[in-house]
């Protein structure tokens, strides 16, 4: 059996609003074979992590976190304080004690908020 | 009381006179200095060695007044006389005279940046003043760009300040930007951020980008390029642009919204101040490794945590900043992002006329003791600030699942109208629509959205209701 992976998940810039306003969570990932036996991967990557987050942590408005299986544009993903583009984005293989941060870009408006999921013209 | 009113009026008159005199002085100053560009402020007071006796002292390239005035920063090894000369010759464009633009402009003016342009189409409101520190109570309803310029002039009369009382758009942006060396993004919406990033790429001016909301702030430098700092291969160093990091705009989430987000004044204060710092460092030609190039500063005031994270490098295939860009001119960014660059005119109409009601009509129903049920869909923090007596808080953010079911039962049970209320009448329509879509036909006529929201209530029914 593989060693369990302990992660620190960080949500910021408003992304925490989708996760019960909790900005930091220390989690232990289950054995990938138990969670996604058919995913075709031996090791946890960010691709499986976002699905796991969607299933177990995301509280509302999925469209503001994921578009399909991709992280929504406007959310920057940082792995150990580095842009995930520098380490393989979705294919980054998670290591024990990694920190993964999902930070929404601040538009900085004091009068506009997110409502797209309600608006169906 | 009478004495107070007399004093208030006298001060008002004096301020008017003061403003006229200041404008006159600015005009005279411009005539003097703009007519002789080689004789700009910097030379004002230099010992006239050509005709007069040899000067006894040497002040480097700077006149006595500048040495004295800027001495506390000239003393820094990173600045010195050479650096101060660069600062005095620099031209900085600040887009947005708000929470970020005010402190940024303040420090740049105080540091002696030769020319500062400041753009804002908006007017000063009292709700701005807790964070927009160049504006004062007496500036209410005046142009933010003008108000900011006036304060900046009283901080430093030796520099040139140009206010632009316009909304920056794809037509006017290039002409304005060409007169400056670098751009500060102190704006607050996605379309303007893409506009400024493309403007930065097209005009080859770096963009120092700040943002602040609630208790959080972010800061980075986009579109950096420098001829003096090159990579090991001898190529000009270039950092990523906004599009390299955010190639796709986020979903148009500003559509149909009217909720107010708060911001703690010191947060844009910190970020705006640091934007000024990065601007000075760029002007001083400090190396890109020292600037926030390929790095982003993230600030969380609630937990008082600040960190700098590493961003990706410039994308050699980027649509905007690559060597063969597909974006070769500025476009319509509101359409591109499907979002308005300001939310002033947002006026949603998604409900049929018979599901809408005016604020005075609601007031009438309440006076007649009709058993109306008021559904205030704002966030609880807004609701607690002020609400119509008898209203019930159903925050739109939580209006799904069980809460939505409960509200539906509530509407069905209520014998009379159910009034949906929010700040400006957009969110309430979205909430009402959500309920209407799930409500059995026979109850639908009861659902009413209060047109114009609490703003309309304040203007048409109760002037004592706070407008925020
Ligand atoms: Zn780019």
TrEMBL record, chain A:
Localization per record: Cytoplasm
Question: Do you know which InterPro entries this protein is assigned to?
Answer: Beta-grasp_dom_sf, Mopterin_synth/thiamin_S_b, Urm1
Which pathway does the protein contribute to? tRNA modification; 5-methoxycarbonylmethyl-2-thiouridine-tRNA biosynthesis
Any GO BP annotation: tRNA thio-modification
For the keyword Transit peptide, the answer is: no
Under the cellular component aspect of Gene Ontology, which terms does the record hold? Answer: cytosol
> Which superkingdom heads the taxonomic lineage of this protein's source?
Eukaryota
UniProt-listed CDD domains: Ubl_Urm1
Q: Which keywords does UniProt give here?
A: Cytoplasm, Isopeptide bond, tRNA processing, Ubl conjugation pathway
Q: How is it modified after translation?
A: C-terminal thiocarboxylation occurs in 2 steps, it is first acyl-adenylated (-COAMP) via the hesA/moeB/thiF part of the MOCS3/UBA4 homolog, then thiocarboxylated (-COSH) via the rhodanese domain of the MOCS3/UBA4 homolog.
Function, please? Acts as a sulfur carrier required for 2-thiolation of mcm(5)S(2)U at tRNA wobble positions of cytosolic tRNA(Lys), tRNA(Glu) and tRNA(Gln). Serves as sulfur donor in tRNA 2-thiolation reaction by being thiocarboxylated (-COSH) at its C-terminus by the MOCS3/UBA4 homolog. The sulfur is then transferred to tRNA to form 2-thiolation of mcm(5)S(2)U. Also acts as a ubiquitin-like protein (UBL) that is covalently conjugated via an isopeptide bond to lysine residues of target proteins.
Q: Which family does it belong to?
A: Belongs to the URM1 family.
Q: Supply the name of the protein.
A: Ubiquitin-related modifier 1 homolog
UniProtKB/TrEMBL annotation, chain B:
Q: What is the lineage of its organism?
A: Eukaryota, Metazoa, Ecdysozoa, Arthropoda, Hexapoda
Q: Which SUPFAM superfamilies match?
A: Activating enzymes of the ubiquitin-like proteins (SSF69572)
Any one annotated GO CC term: cytosol
Species this chain originates from: Mythimna separata
Question: In the UniProt entry, which residues are flagged as the active site?
Answer: 258 (glycyl thioester intermediate), 422 (cysteine persulfide intermediate)
Name of this protein: Adenylyltransferase and sulfurtransferase MOCS3 homolog
Q: Which GO terms describe its biological process?
A: Mo-molybdopterin cofactor biosynthetic process; protein urmylation; tRNA wobble position uridine thiolation
How cofactor binds (record note)? Binds 1 zinc ion per subunit.
Q: Where in the cell is it found?
A: Cytoplasm, Cytosol
**What range(s) does the Rhodanese domain occupy?**
368-466
Q: What does this protein do?
A: Plays a central role in 2-thiolation of mcm(5)S(2)U at tRNA wobble positions of cytosolic tRNA(Lys), tRNA(Glu) and tRNA(Gln). Acts by mediating the C-terminal thiocarboxylation of the sulfur carrier URM1. Its N-terminus first activates URM1 as acyl-adenylate (-COAMP), then the persulfide sulfur on the catalytic cysteine is transferred to URM1 to form thiocarboxylation (-COSH) of its C-terminus. The reaction probably involves hydrogen sulfide that is generated from the persulfide intermediate and that acts as nucleophile towards URM1. Subsequently, a transient disulfide bond is formed.
Keyword field: ATP-binding, Coiled coil, Cytoplasm, Metal-binding, Molybdenum cofactor biosynthesis, Multifunctional enzyme, Nucleotide-binding, Transferase, tRNA processing, Zinc
Q: What is its EC number?
A: 2.7.7.-, 2.8.1.-
Q: In which pathway does it act?
A: tRNA modification; 5-methoxycarbonylmethyl-2-thiouridine-tRNA biosynthesis
